[in-house]
Structure formats: structure tokens, C-alpha cells
Amino acid sequence: MAIRVFLEDILKQRGMTSKELCGLIGITEANLSILRSGKARGVRFSTINKICYYLDCDVGDILKFDGN
Are 15 and 9 in contact (CB under 8 A)? Predict the structure, then answer.
């Protein structure tokens, strides 16, 4: 996949656990794990919006195009 996910890095920088983020944005830990691993086939804009809001980051901090 040409889109790389850097959610784990942002979580570490913010000192937040995946479980805490799940509680804030309202998704299961399993679904967040799929997103973090880069194996998600899609993600809702509303979910990305909540992630960016609670992690105080931009979409480009989480998702990057690697050119492949």
C-alpha cells in the first residue's frame, strides 16, 4: 500500500495509549489496531477528524504517501 500510517508514533509523542484514544474517539481497540498496523482498507473521515482532534495533529502527521 502506498499510504503509510504513523499513528503509533504520534501516540507515543503525545504520551497517550491506544486504549485511551479508543475511549475518546469511540472505536474498538481491534479497529484501532487494524488502522495502526496499516492493514485498514478504509477509514471514515469522521474517525480521522476525531483522531486529529484528540492528538492535536494534522492528517499528514498520521497518513503519508510513500510514492509506491
Answer: no
